[in-house]
Design goal:
The structure holds two protein chains of two kinds.
Chain A (H helix, E strand, L loop, with lengths): L3 E10 L2 E11 L4 E5 L6 H9 L6 E6 L2 E2 L10 E4 L11 H11 L4 H14 L15 H14 L4 E5 L7 H18 L2 E6 L2 H7 L2 E6 L2 E6 L1 H6 L4 H6 L6 E11 L2 E6 L3 E4 L10 E8 L5 E2 L7 E12 L3 E7 L6 E6 L9 E6 L4 E4 L13
Parallel strand pairs in A: 3-8, 3-9, 6-7, 7-8
Antiparallel strand pairs in A: 1-2, 1-4, 4-5, 9-10, 11-12, 11-14, 12-13, 14-20, 15-19, 16-17, 16-19, 17-18
Helix pairs in contact in A: 2-3, 2-4, 3-4
Chain B lengths: L1 H54 L22 E6 L2 E5 L5 H33 L5 H7 L2 H4 L2 H11 L6 H8 L16 H26 L4 H9 L3 H29 L3 H6 L9 H11 L3 H26 L8
Antiparallel strand pairs in B: 1-2
Helix pairs in contact in B: 1-12, 2-7, 2-9, 7-9, 9-12, 11-12
The chains are: A alpha+beta, B mainly alpha.
Amino acid sequence: MANIKLDQVRKSFGKVDVIRGVNLDIKSREFVVFVGPSGCGKSTLLRLVAGLEDITSGTLSIDNQVVNALSPSDRGIAMVFQSYALYPHMTVYENMAFGLKLAKTDPRSIDERVKDAARILQLDPLLDRLPKQLSGGQRQRVAIGRAIVRKPKVFLFDEPLSNLDAALRVQMRIEIAKLHHSLDATMIYVTHDQVEAMTLADRIAVLRDGYLMQFGSPLDLYHHPDNKFVGGFIGSPKMNFLPCDLSGTENGGAVVKTVRNTAVHTTSNPNNHSAGSGYTLGIRPEDLLAGGGRAGDAEIEGEVITIEQLGAETYIYLDLGQEEPLVVKAEGNFSAQPGSHIRVGIPAGACYVFDAEEQALQRPAYN
Amino acid sequence: MVTATSSLPQAETKAATKSTQLTREKIRAAWIFLTPMILVLLAVAAWPLIRTIWFGFTDARLSVPGSGEWIGFENYLYWLDYGGGDGEWIGILADPTWWRAVYNTVYFTVIAVSIETVLGLIVALVLNAQFAGRGFVRAAILVPWAIPTIVSAKMWDWMLNDQFGILNDLFMMVGLISAPIAWTSSPDTAMWAVIMVDVWKTTPFMALLILAGMQMLPGDIYEAAKVDGVHPVKVFFKVTLPLIKPAIMVAVIFRMLDSLRIFDLIYVLTPNNVQTVTMSVYARQHLFDFDNFAYGSAASTLLFLIIAGTTILYIYAGRVNLSGDK
């Protein structure tokens, strides 16, 4: 197993800078997820690690060895592609054995490894089939099997589940998590689906426009986003943002004045931030209290635009005179007529405050 | 409950009749679209073919209008009895020139198509790579294919000319040959001259068909092979070649059909040369030059049968999938 270190890694395609100086220190046996909106460079970053693209500048080391100039096959990696990339004319068995066979591995060891991988992935009954005779989930398992038999130091997954339907995606997600535990390998996984990122990762790297926005554990990103982008990207439905002014401090927490002249007490530490405008108040839909707050909570009133009842929870969309409605998540069934006004409580500990540079003010964990 | 169970089958029957009516409408529409095509094919393909086959069994001559008595297989094979147990077999099947033509045609086809396939594959591989000006090169390489055969044959005829040809001039200059060679008329070189010109002309066609097959290949399997550390040469033989085999097989069929009935190139380049007479040239000679229309028709019929037979054999042996089903 191997650690991976990226030091000021940059990648440009012609004049377009895709990766603009990324530092990452991935520990051995860690499951790291690269996540970000489309075009953020997450797939490119993975391909740089794989060696399918050349690094423009910076160094990449795997297992403490600089691998910038090494070909993909010499890096000790295996990659699972979004489109599976199976050889269409070879059976499942041949697909998995192909790389080993051409590397002149001992035939008995090949057979053993392929059978082992097939057992782990429940592919035994399918070994003689061609890829076109398999379902999407089975193909993806073959692609993973082909990676396993190589016994790589590092597994790379490029959006492996995005071509599967929702139910299968959940199932495969669990299988990949199981695989990580049983193989004990370093894995890098690219996805745009934050649920996959939150559930699979030991640590998540959030990327945006070729910059690393934050690198940390899933709950770290959820509770302590470094900036407004990460705050908005992690969590579903996404965090509500309201413009606010920093007006003062109380008990070490910033007091902000937001829309409708509502003063909101927060637990964020204003530190050396000066009072004034340009701040943003962030509150997650699940932290807002529909129907009113507990004692000491700030409250805000808005007109109900629409509500979505999902049985276990209800989403309420409130008009606060802003571009975006305020989204409130309520447990169970919550009924309100569109057009009616309801009050929403804002617990102090649930608030995030971002400064004019979109950087987060430090705050203690909530809940 | 009773009404519910009784009404269900009724609804099903109704739906069934509706779908058969829909099917009938679809079939009728298909026939409406197909009929013009079938009529045209009958007029321009089936009718001339049937007429040619029929003429092969008559004694029709162009110089004798209205002639054409049924004589059975006499054009193909006939025992000419001199009397007293003496006689000889005559007819196409007993004509050594015909068999020479068959041999020439098959020889030409096998050699030319083989060279074209290999060269076409190489050209396609080159054109499949990313490089500046690829679009221009792709267009430029098609030029030999775009020139009418008569024009290019005449052009090569001049280049291969024993006295004024540029080829002899070049070869003499670099010292490859000491005396001019009559490329197109010498028995040793005539067939190779024809093969060379045909390769020059049709390799682009081959390359383009194979290139089309290559561009259907998914790019990600090459990245997978790269990660697997498979050597590019092995990737070509183990991955690319098996996957473009269907495209190559189809391209070879096209070229094979074309070269089995080759006529124009040989007619211009090496007329009246026994070394290069092909089945088509043989048929034409008898149809028009020798005023033996029926005999020529019989030769054409044989040519048709040989081509059809070869093609069926090839499709069967090569398991070529022309229907496009997977």
